[in-house]
Specification:
The protein is α+β, with helices and mostly antiparallel strands. It has three domains: about 130 residues, Immunoglobulin-like; about 140 residues, Immunoglobulin-like, CATH 2.60.40; about 240 residues, 3-Layer(aba) Sandwich (Rossmann fold), CATH 3.40.50.410. Strands 17, 18, 21, 22, 24, 25 and 28 form a seven-stranded mixed beta sheet that branches. A four-stranded antiparallel beta sheet has the order 4-1-8-7. β17, α6 and β18 form a beta-alpha-beta unit. The radius of gyration is 28 Å and the shape is elongated.
């Protein structure tokens, strides 16, 4: 057929090619990169000791340029030269400009609120800038405090090899050098993987075992990706330190190994001499600074979201739409429910963006579509869970187009009213989810709302109860309202609770639609991003339910092989 690849090269960039390539439902090829952050010569904000730094990464929304927190590293005590262990894993799109901001703070208390800590400066760059630097290693000055030298930051990007194995390892050591004047050493291990350019990136620290020269560390689990990026022969450097309270840990020695060597398990090959190069250079009779022995090595293959999908788990998608009066009269262009004959309104766009992706995981493509906050014909009673298709016994619509049709039909027949109650539709889906907890089905509820919620306490209770069920909730906020209440339900910063009971898992993902409105009118890409953001947390939420319940994926059915027709050949 000679199908042309839908590309950006020449001609008309957004023309449909043969086969009508659909930007929304095809998966945009993304590669994942892992960002490692180190700093040198940070500002010292503590009087009696060194700063206790943390790095907070922000990404910038394309629409309104608002900075959103992406994640935080761990806090490292007493150092101005931190090498953070916790990485940021990001999707890298060659064709998108991803603006990044790294903020550094000196942490003074347990509070997650950054304004309670001392600001140490920041660095701005793009993801492309990091990836495009030599060796994908960007070094830049930290700025943001006038008249002060704030030090430098080094950000390294590494493309992740998609290796799903994890390793459970345990080490012990013998006859380590004594470093403490009074008592014995307090040893811990630091693991580094080597990079393409010969530098090293920290990937694990063990706990400290106090006052011994023969420590046995606890077994720890690390992904093969973090340990060696899936390259079994890549050097792994292990350093042994003696812990000191003031952060000036004493170097005992080091050794190198590789995943391939470690995978031989406990054997004579996995007893390593700990060498301190300085001592070795100085002392003729130096043998070593002790030995480290691998006690056990177990490979565990992490199951992925797609393993469950392959094994037949169905994702059931339910839609709930806000029909309250605060949306405005649907016949007026200012209304969020305005029925414009030429383009979708915000509700329609959000439904389509999310629905078109989710429907690929639902074999029968039948979606229950509900509305809330309207007065229904014939008697004008207010309902907080009514079927958009007018059939309460069978609220299912066929495909996302069926949902859209039912939505438009409802707008013509119901009267927008109020109040805005979420709990009834959440409980509606929870009833179904409670009846299939064996991992064969998972439920996703999409609520599209203008965001002014009336039943906050009941909604929180419903979410806390639903967090024990195989379900996730996506909330898309449309319109100009303040969405503080929605952010609270999202539970990313503070886990949601009701009457002293906390949600078992984080199951709510909230996004404001306005962050995704593309000024240039290219709705396709902005909606692809909306869908990507709201669906991003679903696989992890799904896996967290399966893990907690100990549910393994069913084996994938064998691939279909057509029967072989034996051709009788004439001799």
């Amino acid at each position: 057929f000679g199908l042309e690849k839908p590309g950006r090269s020449g001609g008309f960039p957004n023309m449909a090619c043969v086969g009508d390539f659909n930007v929304l439902s095809s998966s945009i090829p993304a590669t994942k990169v892992e960002l490692s952050v180190s700093c040198r010569n940070l500002l010292d904000r503590d009087t009696f000791s060194k700063s206790d730094p943390i790095c907070v990464l922000y990404t910038q929304a394309i629409g309104n340029k608002e900075w959103r927190e992406f994640g935080r590293t761990e806090v490292i005590d007493n150092t101005l030269n931190p090498d953070f262990v916790r990485k940021f894993i990001m999707d890298y799109f060659f064709e998108e400009r991803e603006n990044l901001r790294f903020d550094f703070y000196d942490v003074d208390s347990k509070s997650p609120n950054l304004s309670k800590h001392d600001f140490l400066g920041q660095m701005f760059c793009t993801l492309g800038e990091i990836v495009g630097s030599q060796g994908s290693r960007l070094q830049k000055s930290i700025v943001g405090i006038p008249g002060k030298k704030c030090g430098t930051v080094i950000v390294t990007a590494e493309e992740l090899g998609c290796c799903r194995d994890s390793v459970l390892m345990q080490f012990c050591a013998n006859k380590l050098d004594k470093k403490d004047f009074f008592g014995k050493s307090d040893p811990f291990l630091v693991f580094h993987r080597s990079n393409e350019d010969g530098s090293f990136t920290i990937c694990h620290k063990t706990e400290v075992v106090k006052n011994t020269l023969n420590p046995v560390w606890q077994a720890f689990k690390i992904s093969v990706r973090a340990l060696c990026n899936g390259d079994y022969d890549r050097t792994i450097k292990v350093e042994v330190y003696d812990w000191d309270r003031d952060g000036s840990h004493d170097f005992i020695g080091e050794f190198t190994t590789s995943y391939r060597e470690l995978s031989r398990g406990q054997s004579q090959f996995n007893v390593y001499e700990v060498i301190n190069p300085k001592k070795k250079g100085k002392k003729k009779k130096y043998v070593n600074s002790g030995t480290v022995t691998l006690l056990s090595f177990l490979i565990e293959t992490e199951v992925s979201f797609l393993d469950y999908i392959k094994g037949g788990t169905q994702i059931n998608f339910t839609v709930a739409i806000d029909f309250t009066a605060s949306n405005g009269n649907p016949s007026q262009p200012t209304s969020l429910h305005y029925m414009n004959p030429y383009q979708l309104n915000a509700y329609g766009m959000a439904l389509k963006a999310v629905g078109e992706i989710i429907q690929d995981y639902d074999s029968d493509k039948m979606f229950p579509a509900l509305g809330f906050g309207a007065r229904l014909p014939p008697d004008g009673r207010v309902s907080h869970e009514f079927a958009l298709n007018g059939n309460p016994q069978n609220p299912y619509c066929h495909g996302i187009d069926g949902v859209m049709e039912a939505y438009y039909r409802s707008l013509k027949s119901v009267q927008l009213y109020g109040p805005t109650n979420f709990a009834p539709v959440i409980n509606h889906v929870a009833r179904y989810a409670a009846s299939v907890k064996d991992g064969s089905q998972y439920f996703v509820l999409l609520i599209v709302t203008d965001g002014v919620i009336s039943d906050m306490a009941q909604t929180k209770e419903s979410i806390v109860n639903a967090s024990r069920l195989p379900m996730s909730i996506i909330i898309v906020g449309v319109g100009p309202a303040e969405f503080d209440a929605m952010e609270e339900l999202d539970g990313d910063v503070v886990r949601i609770s009701s009457r002293g009971k906390f949600a078992e898992r984080d199951i709510v993902q909230f996004v404001p639609f306005r962050d995704y409105i593309d000024r240039s009118g290219n709705h396709v890409l902005s909606m692809a991003r909306l869908a990507k953001d709201v669906l991003a947390e679903i696989p992890e939420q799904f896996l967290s339910y399966m893990r907690v319940r100990g549910i393994k994926p069913s084996p994938a059915p064998p691939p279909y092989t057509p029967p072989i027709h034996v051709l009788q050949t004439q001799i």
